[in-house]
Structure formats: C-alpha cells, structure tokens
Design a protein that fits this description.
It is built from ten helices and 38 strands. The chain is an alpha+beta fold and 693 residues long. Strands 18, 25, 26, 27, 29, 30, 31, 32, 33, 34, 35, 36, 37 and 38 form a 14-stranded antiparallel beta sheet that branches. Helix 1 packs antiparallel against helix 2 and helix 4 crosses helix 5. It is elongated.
Length: 693
C-alpha cells in the first residue's frame, strides 16, 4: 500500500526483494529523498506548500460523495458523467482516474460497458461508491400487422385494423412500456402484442413506440389508406371546374375580341358576305374610329354587343357587269349576337349564333358616283354576316384550342401527359362555368404496387370560398386525391435522384460513397471505390392524399414511402449495391404560383423515417434516419424547381396572374384558386393582329 508514495528508484528495488527487505533497502538507498512516515494521529505534522496550502494528500480528508448517477439509476449512454463533492481535497480518484476538485465539486466522464456498473470515488481515507446500470441498446420489435402500404375498402371491411408483433429489450434494463398511436398496449411475457386501431377515411399513420427503463426508445410507422375506393383506370369525372366570372372576366375577353377585330379580318368577312350575295367585291379601304365589345352572360347563352362608329368601306363591286367603284359609310353600327356554347366529342367546342340584330345610323352608299338607297338592306345583311362569321370563328380558332387541355407534368427526368376532359359548359348571369374531368394513361407503371383502388372521399357542401377574381379554378379534396393517385399510378413519383439532379442544392458534400460514409458510416466507402456515385431511389407504396387546412394550407400526405440508397459504380460489369432502405412518412406542404407559362410549385417537407433494411452493415439508427431526413428536405426543393405543369399550346391571347388560394366548404374539403385575366400585351399595343395569330 506504500509503494505508490515512493520514488521511482525505490519501486525498482521493491520488485527484487521480499516486502520487509525491500522496505529496509528503500531507506538505505534513497535516504536523501525520503521523509519519515507521516503520523496521522491528532498530533499530525504539517508541511506548507508554496501557496500556503496544508493539503498535499497526506492530511485528513473531509467527506466525499457521488451525486450523479444515483444508486440504482439507469444510464443510456456508454459515456457517463460522474459528478460529486469533496471537502478539503484538491483531487479525487474515480475508478482509477483523477478528477480535479473545484470549489468542492468534481466531475469526470468515464466509459462503461453494457450492464451493471460501479463507480468508486476516493480521496485520502474518504470513499463513496454507487451501483447503477448502463443500457444503451434500443428495444427491438417487429410488426407483423399491418403490412406496409395497405389500402382498405370501406365498403368491404370495418373501420379497424389489426396491429400485432413482438417487442423485446435488447439491453439489460427491461421494457418500460410499449404504445401504439400514443396508447399503451399490453405485452405478454414473451413480448407479443395484439391489438387493433380505429381508422378514419383517408391516410392513417400508425406509430409504434417501445421505451426501456433506461429511456432508450425505438419507433416504427405504418400507413394505411381507408375509404370508399374507385377503379383507378377510370377517368376522373368532374375533377375540377373553371369559372370566367362576370363582369370582370368576361370584360377581359371582350377586350381581346376588340383587339382581334382588325380591318384585315373585317375585310375578309365583308368580302365573303358580298360573295354570298352574288355580288363580288374587292375592297381597297376599310376603317372605323371606335369599337366597343361587351359580353353579357344570360341564362344559357352569351349576349355579345359590338358597337362601331364612322365605318368607311370602299372598293370595286361587281354585279355581273364591269366592276364599279363604290363606298359605304355608316355613322353608328350596333350588332347584338346571342351565342351558345356546346361541348362536342374530343374536347371540341361548337359556337352557335342563336339570334342576331343590327342597328345602322347615317348610312351613305355610293355606287358609280351616285348615292343609292336600295343598297342599304344589302349592307345590313353583309355586316351581320360578317360579325356572325367573325365571333364563332374567333372563339373556335383563336380563343379556344382543344390542345390546351392536353397537359404535360414534368418532374426531374420524367414527363407525364394527361388530358383534361371538357365535360360541360354552363352559362349563367354569373359567367361561364366549365366542368372538367381528367384522364391519365391507362397502363400502370411497372413498379407501382397493385392496390385495391383509388380513394374517393366524401365532399362537404361548398359554403364559403368567395373569390373575387376574373377566373376561378376550383376542385375538391376528393378530386385532388384522384389526381394524385393518377400521378402515382403512372409512376411520376418513382424517381432516381443523383448528384446531377442536386446541382442546384446547397449541400456540403457529394453523393458518393465517401461523402455519405463521412456522415453515416466510413465502411460504405469500402464497398466500392470511394468516389462511387450514390443514388436515391423512391418507391412510394401509397398514393398521396391531399389535406386542406383552415389557413389555406395544402398538404400532400404520403405514407410508407420507401427510399433506397444505392451505390452505382461507373465501371462496367460491377453490380450496384443497395446499402440502406428507409421507410418515410412524408407531409409535403405545397404552395403554387400560376402564370401564363404554367404552374410552379414550392414544397416544404416534414418527415419521419424508419430503417427497413441495411444489407451491408448495421447503422446507428438515429444518425441514419436524421441524415436521410436532412437529405430528403433538399429533394423537394429540387423537385419543386423542376416540377411544372404546362399546356402543349400556351394561352397566347391572355396572361393570368396573382393567384389567391381559398380553402372552404364544410370540413375544409374544397379549394378555389382565383387569378386575374389580362389580355396579352401585344393585343393591347398592336392593332395589326393577324387573323391566323
């Protein structure tokens, strides 16, 4: 017990002799450096240090105590902070390591193995000891039911789902509790559990959580879609609607009609009108001073009022003899057309003039240098014919194009073409209402799981939701559910994302074996070359389900969304390696901006992750899921910048801007997006718009 206080030379001698002989040799060989043994009786010898302290380890030490951990505690980290107090000591020995005492307090970090642990603190003759348990292993459990990606038909099953499996504690502390969706669930002696969870219509996320006595915890999630189902291959009827409101929206269209009505166009219609009256005409002049168009929606038709002043038409008119110069001037023209719109097959639109009338004032017709009265009825017929031809032709050929209803949705390197179906057009005094269906490609993407059907949730009434804009686009939660199912069914969400796709993201590393290895596990870089590219491969098992919030929030919820991390060697002949699969529960908050070019998206992500497979290594679960979620937050940013919805033919005659989103209806099941409609700038500034533009 004394050798640790001896000089080094004495310790060397002690190794050669018996204890008694060694003790004598110590004092004979090192007498110049050794003090006599200290008497620890009440008459103790004091030796002052340079700072005046009387404690050099040989004086009487006061009380010592370990304050943390306490006796019987559980610690869930192998690195345990040991804390305590000591009186009249500069340092304390804890399990052989030294901790400095500062103002009566000491602290040290020590590493312990899994299991029972003891820590002992010693200072002089004072000593304290604490027993505790170190358990840093998370509980483990398997979920037998439900399987991932379940779709349950409300018409065929009840509104519950079985949850079963087994949970065990991998550590030594023992299971504290197990819960499903926040509710405690009984576990038998072998760790088996069997219960059921009630389902609500839509996406249901089922969360499992096991916690041991050391407060290590493990979580896992499952998702199930429950509700009435429809055939996913059938077109989505009445999925959306579009309203051109009166008077603001119809006024904007009237402005476009005014811009389209040019002297060149009217010239063609008038020449055709005279030809129809067997009076060929070759116009040299056509002009007017004012033009005003108004569109007044009525029940079942549109009333178009066209007013024009100071119309002058001149040219050569042929009645079968020699062509003769003639001219026509009209002080005021007022034409009224009642126009009906009917939907034909293949998204064609038929425009029919139901009735027309014309008023002419201050007419002067000059033929061969003489004013003639007999031509006035002919003039009225020709002008009406011109406008009767102009308005339907303008709507059918310029303002409406069936190709506008063919949409391309682009995401990363995938393009999906869908078709909007113009089901019906209704005209009321409030404006023009179009009913739209949606049709997706019939074939399923090969990697999409076979599911029971597409969710069709009930929709509440349309209370509220007033949007004061030129054009209102509206749909329901059910309609968007079906749209998202169609996009998923077509494989749009089955993506592969690599370094090239993340060029626009601000990430501090490359998606390579070494880059991921630094963050996750360095052993990844040993599978292939360190610069081997890493790809994210997304495999959603369920279609997104749309939820509307009370604050105009739109969220796409995805459950059981599998993500594979794969090493993809560049060298030929080397197989790629899957090293990690996680399951994700995603909430994507969607904001979108509508423009004349299409629709752009801004997407935020909130995610939970579970490790499903790790074929190569056993990774740290928390670090793995945290890394995947951090990386995943980058992907929607890139996807949003690349995700767009564009028509094959742009709306050349108008621009739309300033979208406003309103969530409404009972239970927030409806969405309306209002936009302003403005004539394209070239139609405002350019009076020479060609009829074929």
């Amino acid at each position: 017990m004394y050798t640790r206080w001896l000089p080094s030379c004495a310790r060397r001698h002690c190794s050669l002799f018996l204890f008694g002989a060694a003790f004598l040799l110590v004092f004979s060989g090192c007498s110049s450096s050794i003090e006599p043994p200290v008497d620890n009786s009440s008459e103790q010898n004091e030796q002052n240090d340079p700072n005046g302290s009387t404690n050099n380890g040989n004086e009487e030490i006061g009380a010592i105590a370990i304050t943390s951990p306490e006796d019987g505690d559980y610690e869930n980290n192998p690195l345990v902070t040991i804390e305590g107090t000591a009186e009249d000591a500069d340092e304390v020995e804890i399990n052989g390591d030294i901790a400095e005492v500062d103002d009566g307090h000491w602290e040290i970090d020590l590493v312990f193995e899994e299991g029972d642990a003891t820590v002992t603190a010693v200072a002089g003759d004072a000593e304290d000891s604490v027993d505790f348990v170190v358990d840093f292993l998370n509980p483990q459990f398997t979920v037998d039911s439900p399987e991932r990606g379940q779709v349950i038909d409300a018409d065929a099953d009840d509104d519950t789902i079985a949850v079963s499996g087994q949970v065990t504690d991998a550590g030594v502390s023992g299971l504290l509790f197990f819960e499903v969706n926040g509710q405690f669930v009984d576990v038998d002696d072998e760790g088996y559990f069997d219960d059921e969870v009630s389902l609500s219509t839509g996406l249901n996320t089922i969360s499992f959580k096991a916690v041991d006595r050391a407060h290590n915890e493990s979580t896992e999630h499952r998702a199930a879609i429950y509700g009435p189902l429809e055939d996913p291959n059938e077109p989505i009827e009445s999925a959306a609607g579009a309203d051109i409101t009166a008077p603001s929206g119809t006024d904007a269209i009237a402005d476009v009609i005014e811009a389209y009505l040019t002297p060149e166009q009217l010239e063609g219609f008038i020449e055709d009108g005279f030809d129809s009256q067997e009076a060929p005409i070759d116009l040299t002049t056509i002009d007017w001073s004012d033009l005003n168009v108004e569109i007044v929606p009525q029940d079942g038709y549109l009333e178009l009022e066209l007013a024009m002043s100071d119309l002058l038409i001149a040219g050569e008119l042929d009645f079968g003899d020699e062509p003769t110069d003639g001219s026509l001037s009209v002080g005021e023209i007022a034409v009224t057309l009642d126009v009906a719109l009917e939907v034909e097959e293949d998204n064609e639109l038929e425009v029919e003039v139901l009735d027309d009338s014309i008023e002419l004032e201050d007419i002067t017709v000059n033929f061969a240098g003489e004013d003639v009265d007999w031509a006035e009825p002919l003039v009225a017929v020709v002008v009406v014919y011109a406008f009767n031809s102009f308005v339907p032709g303008l709507i059918e050929d310029n303002l409406y194009d069936p190709d506008m209803l063919v949409q391309e949705v682009e995401l990363l390197d995938r393009t999906l073409e869908i078709t909007l179906i113009l089901e019906d057009i209704l005209i009321t005094t409030n404006g023009i209402h179009a009913v739209l269906g949606i049709e997706f490609p019939g074939s399923k993407y090969p990697e999409v799981p076979d599911v029971a059907g597409a969710l069709h949730r009930p929709v509440g009434d349309s209370l509220g939701g007033s949007v004061d804009r030129d054009v209102i686009l509206h749909s329901t939660r059910t309609g968007l559910d079906r749209v998202m199912h169609g996009l998923w069914h077509s494989g749009l969400f089955h993506q592969q994302v690599g370094n090239d796709d993340l060029d626009g993201a601000d990430i501090p590393f490359q998606l390579t074996a070494s880059g991921i290895g630094v963050l996750l596990d360095s052993r990844i870089a040993d599978i292939h070359e360190s610069d081997t590219p890493v790809e994210f491969r997304f495999r959603p098992l369920l279609a997104p389900v749309m939820e509307f919030g009370s604050d105009d929030d739109v969220t796409a919820r995805l459950g059981d969304f599998l993500l594979d991390l794969v090493l993809v060697p560049d060298e030929g002949g080397i197989k790629e390696t899957l090293f990690l699969t996680v399951a994700l529960q995603l909430d994507l908050d969607v904001e979108f901006e509508i423009s004349n070019e299409g629709m752009d998206f801004d997407i935020g992500v909130d995610a939970e992750a579970d490790v499903v497979a790790e074929p190569e290594f056993s990774f740290d679960q928390d670090r793995t899921t945290d890394l995947v979620i951090d990386l995943l937050e980058l992907v929607p940013q890139i996807a949003a910048s690349d995700l767009s919805v564009d028509a094959d033919t742009a709306l050349e005659w108008a621009t739309i801007s300033d979208p406003t989103v309103v969530i409404h209806g009972s239970d927030n099941t409806r969405i309306s997006v209002g936009v302003d409609l403005n004539p394209a700038q070239e139609f405002i500034e350019d009076d020479d718009v060609d009829a074929d533009d």
